[in-house]
Task: structure prediction
Amino acid sequence: MPVPDVSIILPCAGFATRFGAPYSKELHCLAPGVTVLDRSLETVVELAKSGLNVRLVVVFGAHKLDTVSYLARYAETFQLVFVYQDHSLEPDLDGAIRSALPMTRGPVALVLPDIVVSGAGSTGSLLAALRQTEVAGWSVVAAEERNPDTLRQMGALAVVERDGNMTVRAATDKPSDPSGYNAFWGMVAVAEEEAHRLPDVASKGADSPLAGAVALIVERIVNYNTTMG
Result:
């Protein structure tokens, strides 16, 4: 398998107990022939269209074979690599990331199958984020948000403007007290040499490595885990 230019971690091993449908939530149909998963991968498809060799590392569980089969339609777009997540050893999102990291090469981006970026600034946002890692090491695709209930369910950010650029001052995952946060991330990109810290983005009690990251603001980020559940 050729060495990729960039690697994308796509965690698809969650149980989505709130969704309550007989199929995986990322396969929920939004339009004829278009699922939530297709929408979440639009920015990744843009990477391939730009000429990059993209490796998509899909983390799955035995209950997600429908998603594995669905992703076959992307076999000619990405290098597809599937990694099984053993929840007894590596639970939750941070465990999924740790399961995938050994299969990544080059800069790495975390893309969630139930998160969709849209509107102004979304096209090319992931490519721009990956390019920012060459300078800053870390970057996020984020949306501004003031609603405390939304921030409690997301990777919350305190974003400030410095020298004309948006920068993350502080970050935490699903804060119980969201005061002081004004945005949340939809995708995270990191340079290869820093990728080992990517699980800490979603680890409870860990210091977030996102402080100092460049923030690329898009118009809208939809979390379909909450809007459908």
